[in-house]
Amino acid sequence: MQDTVSLLIANILESYEEIGGINNIDGANLPSKRAITQICEDLLQILFPGFHDEEPIATQKVQQITSGRILSIVDRLRVEAFKSLRLQEPECPRCRADQIVFHLIHQLQPIREVLQTDVEAAYEGDPASASYDEIIVSYPCIEAIAIQRLAHILYREKLPLIPRIMTEWAHSRTGIDIHPGAAIGSHFFIDHGTGVVIGETCRIGAHVKLYHGVTLGARSFQKDDQGKIKKGGKRHPDVEDWVTIYPNATILGGETVIGFGSTIGANVFLMESVPPDSLVRNERALINIVSKKNRDRTISRPLEAGAEPLLNYEI
d(Cα 288, Cα 278) in Å, to the nearest integer? Predict the structure, then answer.
């Protein structure tokens, strides 16, 4: 048994020498995913006091609790930010990490203000919502948007790794994948949320509503002379104010713009811009209603934008 285990260990060690690119041996210490996860949890407690706590918070203790939490976040995030910066800047001074962390803390108040508009949008946009409390404690979109808005601050400060760790943590919890680079306006609501993907270079205006399964993605990627994908550039669409995009719509391309006040129907696949106040629907979609008692009788009609199929639909 001991010999077998020793052989397996030797094989793993040998693979460390032969397989490159996925090792970080003798390299700089990476940011801790576990530490970032806890920091995200604590930041949610700051943004929504009393909603992410096991014990109620009394008014007379708010200052003490909040002060302790912010000081703790600053201390821990400074360490992780320094680790992250050092990967690209080996001589990076710690003051750069400090500046980024203090900038994030400075932005907590304006982030809370815009998050209040997101909660309002969810309440006004979902007839099933019973209260603001229900939305904050249970709607996955609020958590995903809150973490993305925090991560976006760090992304704009060019902090490596940590913003993406934060949004992928939210992705794993909510099923909503928003890149930290996406710029998102106020009153943003994602109904249901599962399967939503929003790319790095998206610009989303105010009062935008998305449903589950919506993708704001990139078209096919350009490649260089070596056949490798070119990085950077505007790759994802822009969505202007007061736009609604229904379930499973896919909108691609960095030059694609969805104009003000437009509605994109369910299952639409779009790679071109849409003028303001447009209704885009998939005319190819048919809904087939079949009688269970008489299978020969079939009624077909176009699937309206946002309509739910009664039995089945074909694309």
Answer: 27
Annotate 236-283 with DSSP letters as a single string: S-EE-TT-EE-TT-EEE-TT-EE-TT-EE-TT-EE-S-B-TT-EE--T
Q: Which residue has the tokens 């609501």?
A: 189
User: Which residues touch 40 (CB under 8 Å, ≥6 apart)?
Assistant: 147, 150, 166, 169, 170
| Span 136-145, pLDDT tens digits | 999 999 999 9
The helices-and-strands tally (H runs, E runs) of the chain is 8, 17
The pTM for the full model equals: 0.84
Superfamily of domain 25-176 in the CATH hierarchy: serine acetyltransferase, domain 1 (1.10.3130.10)
CA dihedral 127, 132, 137, 138 (to 10 degrees): 0
Question: What are the boundaries of each domain within the chain?
Answer: 25-176
